[in-house]
Structure formats: C-alpha cells, structure tokens
Amino acid sequence: MQIKTSNQVDSQVYADAIAIRRAVFVEEQGIDEALEIDEVTSATWHYVLYDDTDQAVATARITSTDQHALHVQRVATLKAARGNGYARELLQRMAQDASKQGFTELQLGAQVTAQGLYESLGYQPQGAVFMEAGLKHQNMTLTL
Predict the structure, then answer these.
(1) Which helix (H) or strand (E) holds 94?
(2) What pLDDT digit, counting tens, does each position of 18-36 carry?
(3) What pTM was estimated for this model as a whole?
C-alpha cells in the first residue's frame, strides 16, 4: 500500500482521484458530475491510496481554510476495495501531514452514512444536519 499526493491537475494522482470520485460519487451515488468535478487550485492537495497491486482505490483532498484549519473533502473508496481500512489510512495520513505543517484543526462535511468512520478517528459533529448534492451531511471537526 502506498499513498501519493499532488496539487497539480495534470498529475497521475489527480487523474486517479477523479476516476475514483466519478466511480463513487457520480456513478454509484448519482451525484451530478457538474457538482462533483469542480475547479481546484494549487492550494488543493489530492491524496490517493494505491493498494498492493498498485491500483488506485481510495482518495480524498484537502484545502486550507485559514492559517489554523484545513478542509477535508471528497473522501471516497472504490466499492470493491471497501472494508480494508483505506479511507482510515488516508485520513490518518492527512491529519499527520496537517499537524506537521502546524495546522490545529481539520474540518469536513461528512455524509451522515459515513459519520461513524470520522467519529472513530476523533472527529466531533458540529451543528445541524444539512443537505448537499441530495445527501444528508453534517459538519465535523478534528482537533490536532
């Protein structure tokens, strides 16, 4: 298993991230591709986890919201690869990287169906449940 990162939209990491997001969010969950594949800047870092056969199986991205916090988005694992702890590995790596860079908090809008994963990593729910892209979400934060 290997985790690669990139902030370049012309990188293989970005292409693999988009392929996973299309499979999970657009094809599986029915989210409009125009909502899912949004514009990003070089301030957005894409993480992709490659399994032991070097297949891209999970992704997430992270962007600075201010000098203290980062926003985690688009956490996804291919259906055939779920149950192996890949998303957990990505999220733990992101928290380690953020902490090393001096950030003190991670924020995310979790799909309600995935809240258990985030809570198991120390994220705390914040505020009311809301709808985004037709799915229930809740803001969550992790203090680093």
Answers:
(1) helix 86-100
(2) 999 999 999 999 998 888 8
(3) 0.93
